[in-house]
Amino acid sequence: MGLVTGVGLALLGHEVMCVDVNSTRVEELENGNSPIQEEGLEPVLAELLQRGKIRFTTSIETGIEQAEIVFIAVATPSLPDGGTDSSHAVTVARDLARLIHRYTVVAVKSTMPVETLDQLDSVLKERLIPGKQFDLVSNPEFLREGRGLRDFFRPDRIVVGSDSEPAFSVMRQVYQPLIDGSAELPEAFRTDTPIPYLETTPSTAQMIKYASNAFLATRISFINEIAGLCQRLNADVGAVVEGLGLDPRIGKAYLQPGIGFGGPCLEKDLTALVRLAQDNNYDPVLLDSVLQRNHLQLIEVQNKLINGMGPSPVGKTVAVLGLAFKEGTNDVRNSLALRLMKDLADSGATVHGHDPLAIPEAEEQFQDATYFENVYEALAGVDAAVVLNSVAEYRDLDLERVAATMKDGLLVDVRGVLNSGDVLSHGLRYDSIG
Ligand code: UDX
Are the CB atoms for 107 and 129 separated by under 8 Å? Predict the structure, then answer.
């Protein structure tokens, strides 16, 4: 989020200094190498570096020397009790406070409860040099990994939460080139659609972010539950999604059944919202069940594999195709594929893993599996395989080769990317979600 925001702001014409504590990462970025897979990022980064519009440093002093606005985009992971770990943001606020020398807007991109924003405000005020001024604003980010730059330049909305008119004014200037379409952007990032710009209070801004992620998660759990019902009632979930999506009140986005929602955001934000509700003596029955369905969905996939392989998984081998938390990224944070691999290994199965982008990251997180760069090598001699995402490589699998290389042919097609008739006609067994 920080890198995409920095690159996005630089392309809007601002001078950007990106600060990170990781010196290897900073060095790589100075050389134009992105540590994350983001569509279109590296060419833009190279050009901005060449023009001197973006710089990278590990020094917060250097980073904010000239800054009129500071974006905080650090991680806010979940605590074991579901609360939000805001320690990174607090550390940044502590370091930042002594360095503020002119009126500075501190814009929080990271998702955090409003009490945490208040805490950052207090930390900044406590350590601020007397006479210096700042305003803290909430500027939540809605970008999706893998297509972050596109989401930055063509957002569905920009949300700014503040109680201060001068801060609103600075934020409007920041986003002005995007709002009035004056920014010179590469073709892929341009849009003629006006971008809604919402100004509100910090707590409402934070709630817009939490509610958005909770709603997306709710749609996914909803369709996963409907998919489970479809399978039991002999209905076709693909056709149900099509029929549902044609109703403009519903639409078809975020209705793709699968193993559940993974990744660093949806589950974390939903858990935080549940926790916030409980802390405020309010029973979040709906949000709680969205999380529960997500948990059960993983077990559903696991059971399909284990039951499909016979009485016991001990001594069996399973190939897991798709290791990142979704396609098009190398991010394995909170990847349900890794949780599935662990559960399978714990139950005595041997696990093979394949992903077009995320093998090094998966290997770092989970060592109890053998990883293969080639999908057919991953499938060699296995009793079952599960396809967890819809990359072209899996969609276009050569089923003749698959049938020849797999020991026993159970294919669990979680994303519905294969044609069941084709799979069966190659002598393989087929199962799916819904
Ligand atoms: C999400 C939000 O979409 C974004 O607005 C917010 O800023 C950060 O969190 P991201 O984590 O990149 O973005 O992932 P997203 O593309 O939303 O997918 C999240 C998870 O849901 C993935 O595991 C994905 O596979 C799953 N998913 C998504 C489904 O199972 N079905 C769907 O229909 C959509």
Answer: no
